Each structure stands twice: as C-alpha cells, then as structure tokens.
C-alpha cells in the first residue's frame, strides 16, 4: 500500500449554472478525499467563471480512489446552493506522480453544468 500526500491545485471553473437569479453567485468548492474535507475561499461575485488558484494538501493512501469536488454557491441568510460536482479518479496521479491542470466535467445529477480545472501532484512517503 502506498501512502503520501496529494496536493490539489484548484485553478477555477467555467460555464457553471448560475443559481442566483438576481446577481452573480459566490461560488466556493468543497474538496473531499475519503474522510478528509477542505474548503476553498469564496469567489465573491465571480458567478459562472470563478478562479481560485488555491492549493490543498491531503494525506492519502492508494486506497483513496477518487477526489470529489462539490461546487457550492454561498448565500447569506439562506442555505448555500449546490451547483454541481466533479469526481476525479486518482489512479493516474499515483502512477504518473503529477497531472497538470486538467479540465473535468461538473455535473448535477446526470446533467452537465460546467467544468472545473484541477492539477494534482502525489508525493509518496519515504519509508526508511
């Protein structure tokens, strides 16, 4: 079993469905790898094409087969709206070591609702 760190570069998203009817939405991302969850900053007023350029680090083993990124719209006063999600398989990053920023589909149910750009780097833990 391989252990190490997975660094996720959350670049941005494009063409997201706007869940706010009156103004641009304020999207943020929830990144989940097995039981670990992290949250990006809120791209205030960025609407359908947010950019984050933020990095997140997860401690993983190769039993973690996917990274799920949920895109949410931050709403003050009401609960945040679910925009869509992308599921990114991790098998390739374990073999390659790194995957440059790549575009993945964002879906809500079965419907395509935009794309997200994410880069991945896996650093195996050195065992002495």
From TrEMBL:
It comes from the Eukaryota. The keyword Metal-binding applies. Keywords: Calcium, Metal-binding. Residues 1-103 form the C2 domain. GO terms for molecular function: metal ion binding. Transmembrane segments: none annotated. Signal peptide: none annotated. This is C2 domain-containing protein. It comes from Aegilops tauschii subsp. strangulata (Goatgrass).
């Amino acid at each position: 079993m391989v252990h190490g760190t997975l660094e996720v570069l959350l670049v941005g998203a494009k063409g997201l469905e706007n869940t706010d009817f009156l103004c641009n939405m304020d999207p943020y991302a929830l990144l989940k790898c097995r039981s670990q969850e992290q949250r990006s900053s809120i791209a205030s007023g960025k609407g359908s094409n947010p950019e984050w350029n933020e990095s997140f680090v997860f401690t993983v083993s190769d039993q973690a087969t996917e990274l799920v990124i949920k895109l949410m719209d931050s709403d003050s006063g009401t609960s945040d709206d679910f925009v869509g999600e992308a599921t990114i398989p991790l098998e390739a990053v374990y073999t390659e070591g790194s995957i440059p920023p790549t575009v993945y589909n964002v879906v809500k149910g079965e419907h395509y609702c935009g794309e997200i750009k994410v880069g991945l780097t896996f650093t195996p833990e050195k065992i002495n």
